[in-house]
Amino acid sequence: MILGGDLGGTKTLLALAELRDGKLQIAFERRYASQDYPTFDALLDDFLADAPPIQAACFGVAGPTNGHHVKLTYLPWEISTNNLVSRFRFRHALLANDFAAAANGLPLVAQHQLKMLQTGLPVSQAPRVILGAGTGLGVAGMVWTDNRYCVIPGEGGHIGFAPQTPEQGELWQWLHEKNGRVTTEDVVSGPGLARIYAFLGGRPQQPEEIGHNALSKSDPLAEQAVELWFSVYGAFAGDLAIQWLAYGGVYLAGGIAAKLMPHIGYSTFMDAFNAKREHRLVAENMPIHLVTEERLGLLGALALAGSKQD
Q: Which residues contact 115 (CB under 8 A, 6 or more apart)?
């Protein structure tokens, strides 16, 4: 039995699984509201009640990690593999960046859960990049080596926000006056959508409410906020694609884009992605996929846990 988890500032997904003939078979999974638990140990105590012995565990975590220790960015949780092995008697335990875990989950995603946004000119074994907005903004690269894709984790969401329009410049100035340095994650995330809405003059609202009102067309300001959000997201994704020369594919994960883009923001995102001046043709040749599998990070964590089995 192996254990996988996707630990985020809003939700935590956990699952027990077995490897049978090289394929993952999930036996039990559960979703938690992360902020309901003061520590990750307390959450695991709840999940593992009456569970069989665990041979290997891997958790994708929203924060920088060396594989053995992490302090989550948006939670008070501090986790170490030594403590996990000691307290829960796992034989192996690993911590992975949440989008490194997501990248490892891509081979397990069903084809119908990948929506093609731009066909491009895909190149076999070329670099890939995966990114996604949720509570924060995750990024990971993938390069082909030793007959497989090797995942390169990072904290790309904390790259400085680079405005591309006068309106985005005003947004940068507004955010800078509040907190100083402005990162892309300050804008391209759930909290970032709420900040954009406030910048445009809206009253404080949760990002879920803003997205819902934009989809229902009940609030023109919400629609404007979502369009501005997608314009920044598209520009950032295009910059990453050019940095990696991601002819192997750009993969958009995270629930916000999956819920909104089929209905609003697609054209805005694509226009911003491809607006790369003399490198426009390069950007247009990048295949872009929207990942609708919410459990992507969980599947990747299970895959990494399975690789640690004896």
A: 262, 289, 290, 292
Residue 304 is encoded by which pair of tokens? 């990494």
Regarding the domain with residue range 2-105+295-307, which homologous superfamily does it belong to in the CATH classification? Answer: ATPase, nucleotide binding domain (3.30.420.40)
Contact 201, 246 (CB under 8 A): no
Cα–Cα distance for residue pair 92/204, rounded to 1 Å: 44
Does the domain at 112-291 match CATH 3.40.710.10? Answer given as no
Count of CB atoms situated within 10 Å of the CB of 119: 11
pTM, to two decimals: 0.93
Q: Which residues contact 13 (CB under 8 A, 6 or more apart)?
A: 5, 6, 29, 30, 31, 32, 295, 297, 298
pLDDT, tens digit (0-9, with 9 covering 90-100), for 227-274: 999 999 999 999 999 999 999 999 999 889 999 999 999 999 999 999
